[in-house]
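Researcher: We're teaching a course module on how sequence relates to structure. For the next exercise, students receive a sequence and then see the predicted structure as tokens, so they can try to spot secondary structure elements on their own. Here is the exercise chain.
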Amino acid sequence: MRLDTRNNEQVSDILLALCSAFPERSQDVMTLCLKAKRGVVLELKCATKSHSSSQQRYYRKWVGEFAKFVGMTHDEMHEEMLCRAFGSELIATTMGEVRRPSKRSSECGSAEYSVLIDMLIITAGDLGFRVPPAQEN
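Model: And here is the predicted structure for the students to work with:
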């Protein structure tokens, strides 16, 4: 949704209401409005519970290390972990069948991301690579 802030009192009313509802961000809203020559973009979407950034840092570090250990790229290993943790489906393409994970990590909340991390730890352990517990990082 794009809102033209130039000479539009109703948009100003909305932005003032945002400032009132979120006083800790009012300076940011006002600065944005002053800088916006062609309007502002207001995005409204459902809030979702996401995994934590510490979970993601931990997983990304160790999936990369494990990938090197077995001779895969980071992306290849990530795809493999997604397929193992959440299942996969075979998709027919003009270039043949492709295996795709049933769920992407961006769709995971904290609990599901923990499943992905656990799968990494178990799979790595089975192949002789130790992924340290998160507390050691």
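Model: If you want an answer key for the exercise: Strands lie at 2-3, 40-41, 88-93, 96-101. The first strand starts at residue 2 and ends at 3.
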